[in-house]
Structure formats: C-alpha cells, structure tokens
Amino acid sequence: MRTALLVLSLCFASCATYADRTGRALRDFESGNFAAARGAYDDPSTTGSEFLQLVESGTVAWTAGDLGAAQERFDTAGELTKQFERAALISSETLGEEVLSWAFNDTAKSYEGEGYERVLLHVHDALTRLERGDRDGARVEAKRANVHLENDETLYKKSYRAGGLGHFLSALTYEMDNEPDNAWIDYQRMVTKGVGLELAGKALVRLARRAGRQDELEGLVQRFGQEPELPEGAASIVVICGVGFGPEKFESGLAIPLEHGVARWVVPVYRDRYQPVANVDLVVNDSSVRAAVVEDIAAVARENLADRIAWMATKSAVRNALKYEMTRRLGKDDNLGTLGTLAGIVYTLASERADLRAWRTLPHSFHAARVFVAPGTHSVRLAPLGGATMDLGSFELARGETMFVFARTLGTRTYARAVGGQRLTTGTTP
Predict the structure, then answer these.
(1) Which structural domain range is residue 386 located in?
(2) Alpha-carbon distance 18 to 40, whole Å?
(3) Radius of gyration of the chain measured on its C-alpha atoms
(4) For residue 71, is it within any domain?
C-alpha cells in the first residue's frame, strides 16, 4: 500500500511542470519586482532543484545589481556542478535516481543543468566578477565556460556557434591589462567560431595595426573593413546586454491505445517566446552603433536539445515497454482484472512526462558593442529596438579608460548600470 501511495504521489507531482511552479516568480522578474522574484527562487520548493534555485536567483540578483548575492549564488552553483560530476562516478544515490528515471520519468533525477546552461553559469560568473573589478577572476570563469563548451562539442562530435561572450570578456580583460597578444587569441577564436564577428573582426584589425602585423592586416581589412584611426589617448565604452528571454520547454508526445493498455511517448521541445526587443543600439553623444550578437542562447539551447532528443526518445520507448508489461500483468491478476488494467493505464498516462526543467531567467541572447572616444565628457544612452530608450547620463572618461554598461531587457524596459568614468549628470532610470 505504501509503495502504491508513493507511486501515485509521484504521478500527481509530475503533473505540475517546472513552468507551473516558477510562473509567478518569472512574472515578478519580468515586471521588475526583483525582491519578490528572488524570494520565490530562493525557496527550494519553487524550483525543486538546487542548481536551478541558485542560477535563477543569481540571475535576478545580477539584473537587480546585487553583485555580491549574484556571485555567491553562481559560485555555489559552480561547486555544485563539480559535486554532480564526482557523484556520477561513485554515488549509489545517483544510481538509484538513474534507475527511477528509466521506470518513472526523467524528473526523478536531480537536475544538474544542461551543457549549455553550465557554460552560461560560468559566463554569468565572469560578468559579475568583471563588474566588481576582478579581471583575473573574470578570465578564469571565461576559460571554465570554454572548457565546458569544448566538452559538449567533443561529446556530440560537433561545433556549436557559441562561446562568443566568454571570449569577448576574456579579450577585454587582456586588453585592459595591456596584453594584446592574449586578447588577439580570444578575438581570433570568436572569428573561428563565427560569433560576434562585427566586434571581433574590428578588434583584430585594430590590434594588427597596433602590432604592425602587416601580412595579417591586409586580409583582415578585406574581410572586415578598415577601422578609423583612434583618437589620441582614446577611451572606450563597452555595452553588454542580455536581451529578452530564452525559449520555453513544452511537451510533445503521442498516446497510442493498445490491446492490454496504452503507450505514451513524450519528449521536450522548445518554442520561442515573444521578444519585443530585437537588438540594442549604444548611443554616445550623437553617434550610435548597433550591438552585435555575441551569444545566441536560444539557438544553442535548441541545438543542444536536438543532440539529446534521440536518447530521450529511446528512454521514453523503454519506459513504455516496461509500463505496458506492468499493465498487462495487472490485468491478468485474478484479484484485479479490469481494475488492474485501468490502474496501469492511469499510471502510464500520469507518469510518462517530459522533463521541462530549464534555466528560465536566461536571456534570449547577449549583445555587445564597443565605441572608442576621445578623453573627455560624453553622454551615453541605450536605445533598444522595440523598447524605451534609457538615458544613462554624461560621464568624464580619462585617457585609455574603459567604461562598461551592463544591461538586461525585460519586456520593453531596460535595466542598466554604468561602471567606470566619472558621472557628471544622471540620466533616466527604468
């Protein structure tokens, strides 16, 4: 009886999807009610997953500008993924969860984050550290992100058009530390991967001219165009903006009546969410530059899922075979008969569910732009395409200084922070 009650409780619990449990928190986040969103995500019952609890709450904290809380959560999530990797080799608990996932569904397993989510965990940690002035730490996290990406590419024997933001952050920190040769390597990796070409190509032209790489400069100029000479003692303004929300997971499947029961085959699929903002322009004084997409999270998420879908479908088919055999035996039991068949059908329909857990507060994509200006006073605005323009104010920039604008669009509103420069006037606030 206890076993039956446990099975039934698992079945009914599976009916509440991750989107159902976190819907209120996500709506609070999107509307700018960050305190309520963080409170909900920090509650373990909201996500039912320690990894998701940390990264969802960390994303809200980063967007709200609470960098200490964000870094604490991202660092803890990073340590948690290391524990997952060790436990996969030695833990009987992990083995038990794997067995349950074959008999029940994949939600019986602890959620450890998809491959692309682990990459983005370290990218977010790098962003947070960079904003806090920890350039060395930002480079370390960017490299960790690239290691996770390369591991996934090795596993699935393919190259994702991903990793651009991590390389861009690393290259920026190298340039700020006057290590142009190391910055060159990261920009070159962006070009090789085909991500953020507008940014990386121009940077390579600039660095090639600076280092006197004449042989490479000609080919780079032909491919990416000539870059104007920089002003004497040029400063720069960099914007890094997360735009919108990534795609949502839904369940796709088919229920087939059979002689002694029913088969229900299910897999998760992604659907794009409505994105009111398409891109962001960085406006400095009266000149604007369109930000380049350096990380297309939505595309990578769909591609990563496609690489795993055959395995998920296989597991669903095996589970159906096991559940169908259970239903057939229950139906032949002299004490149960038709009631046993009905119980087996109900269990199959209720328990065979796709795993819809995902890092839902992630943006649809990350965009970045860089503008070089003469030292002095400059007004700075962000003009999202489809959203309200945000005036950040005017700033005094010193020779060689790099000023950052970290931003996130939610709906048509933009939340942004300027780091660096001396603020002279205050612009509008979201």
Answers:
(1) 231-430
(2) 13
(3) 25
(4) no
